[in-house]
Amino acid sequence: MEKYRKTIIGSAVLLCLVLAVAMFVETFRRVSVDATVELNRLTAINHFCQRTLAFLLLIAVWNLHKRKFAAWLLTVLALVVSFTLYSIHQHLFGYITMAVQLYCVVVLLVFNRYFRRPARKPSLKVVVTLSILVLVFLLLNAAYGHFVLVRDSRGPAGMWASLQRIFDFLFVDGGTGPYSRFIFLFIWISVGVLVLFILRPIVYDVRITPRDRKRARELVLKYGQNPASYLALEGDKTLFFSKRVSGVIAYGVVGNWIIIQGDPICADEDFVRLLSEFTEFCLNNNYNCVCLGTTDKYLDEYHQMGFEHVKCGEEARFKLDEYKLSGGKMAKMRMNVNHAVKAGLTVEEYTPLVKKDPEIEHAIKKVTDDWMGGKKSGKLVFSVGDVNLDNPMDRRYFYAKDETGRIVGFNVFLPFEGGAGYMADVTRRTHDAPGGVTEKITFDAFMKFKEEGVAWGSLGVSPLANVEEGDNENAVLSKVLEFAYEKGSRFYGFKSLHLAKERYTPSEWIPAYFTFSQKTASPAMALAIIQVQNSGGAWDFITSQVKKPLERIKARHG
């Protein structure tokens, strides 16, 4: 039954595409030279509208096969209006077109539940580009209609003159004749409707309302066993609240991919039901699904739900009641901390919920600006949080000052396991900070947590570290990740990041995994993972990898 349903829907989508092309071409058909001026005017208006509707259909059909609701609504509206216009002029092409349009509308209405994918929030660049594209098309379309109308009325015809005339009455006088007034209203109404469709996700798509944030925070603090669970409260996440159990899933969308941050957040006994409900949501909206940085706690449950897993790195975890600087294994860590102490660095905790200090917050922002100035690409997002001093909630802030009192580095820690652990999420320092500043901040923070009875500290996941040692279900993907670790470290610094965390001497290394619906491992999945984590998008990630070696070559040769 499902196969036949998809075949019928697919035929309607294909016919909409054919209709769009045929309608556009047909509008260039000339009427008889013996036609009256009034008939010429009506025909020009009709053709202008049909060309616009054909243009709308082309835009809509492009997104219709992705099952987007906005595309479905736009297609139905365009088909209904076009059907009405064709009913005015009876001819063979019109009858055939109306029959096909009727079939498409009926199919789209009958299977309307198939098109339920919500619109995603577009970037400002996309909004501006599409708006300009629509306006230019309507301007040229109206100019051509004016040119045909003047030419068929045996008046002096010129496309450039028509374009100037249309431009004048659109932006200057609004036109004087009935044709001009109609075109003026039609164009601006069309632009308004299209821009509303484009902007709808920005106007209505509030990712996390205060009520949702409060509800999600309660669930994260109660059930968030993954050190990255608190990232669910970041503004770049969309939240999925279960209707069947008390649970939440934080995710982002890239094309046809939904990327879950960490594990679903709920009670252990509700995990399968929550994941099942979410996979049903993905299936209904034609999304593939991949989870980033999951722990090994629920691997059996993922497998039960048809997910594969592959190791994607290791988390540096510290048992705080045993953590101290003494001992041979701590030699490197001890040396770095002592270097920071000799340089006169001191560490303090900033508690913005107790007392706001604009000077400290300004200094922290300056550290971030300095840190960003040394990066060759946009900062990582999605799997790394932000400073969030405007809404700190349960975050903990520790900063280091030099001998002059200048803040030269800071860490932001996120709670997990109900406050039984804290993960260093954001670690930043100025380019001229003394060596050991980050180690000093981290160690002092861990000691403060230890005094409070906190059990665990974490430095988060070292991406792609020791992936070959994992219990991997997808051997091919595992080899690809292993290759990326070996060959990609010169660009991203996978090895140096792992070595930096090793200097802290973690109590244990906990494996982290990519889990994904079976048969979806592909280059598209890898690209989606890169894109969701890079603030500048996939292109910024790619160009940054080219810039780095070029800059090194330039520096080497002066």
Give me a quick take on this structure.
By secondary structure, this protein is an alpha+beta fold.
List the defining traits of the structure above.
558 residues, alpha+beta, Aminopeptidase, 12-stranded mixed sheet, 17 helices, 12 strands
Structural class: alpha+beta
User: Overall 3D geometry?
Assistant: elongated
- Give, in order, the helices and strands: HHHHHHHHEEEEHEHEHEHEEEHEHHEHH
Low-confidence stretches: 201-206
**What integer value in Å does the Rg equal?**
30 Å
Average pLDDT reading: 80
- The total of helices stands at 17
Helix content bin: 40-55%
The end-to-end distance, rounded to whole angstroms, is 69 Å
Task: Please state roughly what percent of the residues sit in beta strands, choosing from under 5%, 5-15%, 15-25%, 25-35%, 35-45% or over 45%.
Answer: 15-25%
Overall strand count: 12
Please describe the biggest sheet, giving its number of strands, its sense, and whether it closes into a barrel: 12 strands, mixed
